[in-house]
Amino acid sequence: MDWDDMRIFLAVARADSLSAAGRRLGIDASTVGRRVARLEQALGTALFVKTPQGYALAQGGERLMPHAEAAETALAGAEDALSGPGDLGGQLRIGAPDGCANYLLPQVAARLCEAHRGLEIQIVALPRVFNLSKREADMAIAVSQPQAGRLVVQRLTDYSLHLAAHEDYLRAHPPIREREDLRGHRMIGYIPDLIFDRELDYLAETGMELAQLTSNSVSVQMQAVRAGAGLGIVHDFAIPFCPGVRRLLTEQISLSRSFWLIRHADDRRSQRMNRLADALAQGIRAEVARLQTQVAP
């Protein structure tokens, strides 16, 4: 049995489509389809069932899946054993909420790539929870701790959020000295029905009015605050990127959240993945601390 065919089988099983698997592997969808058909012929059983939603595992595919994943883990272990003690090469795909992906990961990734010239880092910034069982990413950063699944979960760091506005907005509107002064001010926040994690429901926790300007992206919200469109709950670590934005009512409105690093349970047997996780964790902690110290009290 050809491992390359097995690799393609795993990609289709995780992506549920030939085209998505091909994009991940860097080959065209028709080639993926031919390779799957060849593997099915060699094994004498159907591995997938075509459905309106994509490619679902057939009974043969269900039986093959754990063996294919075990082979993948064994191959990764062999690569670990043969790599040098200082080498951290290959590809690493990190899924993260867009606030972390925009304001933290670029600097952290740059330092990792500088230290390990053979390392290729892909940052997937999406406002949703990543599915590691389908290998949408090698690691994911989340704002809440998952409660189910075969996962390795590591707390990365705590971070702070505060009410903030741009100086241009504050000059053009009535002063804000107490909570009561917030009435009548335009609020910026999440689209309520697109909040994918309860930890992101900042306005509900602070008891403020519903937002009039909303987005499912925290980075878009931050840019709206920077543009003087209103008040918003923002990450302290994002403020240094937006000159003129300053915090308000810091004694009365202050939130704390945590970032969690999530990995597939099978990856804990990989020394490479363990070392990458440690390096990523150290980098995130250091970058949050560096940026938050730049914010004026």
List the main descriptive attributes of the protein structure presented here.
297 residues; alpha/beta; Arc Repressor Mutant, subunit A; D-Maltodextrin-Binding Protein, domain 2; nine-stranded mixed beta sheet; 10 helices; 11 strands; WH_DNA-bd_sf; DNA binding; DNA-binding transcription factor activity; LysR family transcriptional regulator
What is the alpha-carbon Rg in Å? Answer: 23 Å
Strand content: 15-25%
Kindly state the percentage of residues in helix: 40-55%
Stretches where pLDDT falls below 50 for ≥5 residues?
A: none
Tell me the series of helices and strands, N- to C-terminal. Answer: HHHEEHEHHEEEHEHEHEEEH
Largest sheet: 9 strands, mixed
Count every beta strand, where a strand is a DSSP E run of 2 or more residues.
11
CATH topology of the largest domain: D-Maltodextrin-Binding Protein, domain 2
Note the total helix count: 10
Would you write up a description of this structure?
It holds the Pfam family HTH_1. GO terms for molecular function: DNA binding; DNA-binding transcription factor activity. It comes from Paracoccus lutimaris. Keywords: DNA-binding, Transcription, Transcription regulation. The protein has helices at 3-15, 18-25, 29-43, 59-82, 98-103, 105-115, 167-172, 202-206, 218-226, 271-292, and strands at residues 48-51, 54-57, 90-96, 119-125, 139-142, 151-166, 187-189, 213-214, 231-235, 245-248, 254-264. With 297 residues, it is an alpha/beta fold. The strands form two sheets. Strands 3, 4, 5, 6, 7, 8, 9, 10 and 11 form a nine-stranded mixed beta sheet that branches. A two-stranded antiparallel sheet has the order 1-2. β1 and β2 form a beta hairpin. The longest helix is centred in the N-terminal third of the chain and has 24 residues, at 59-82.
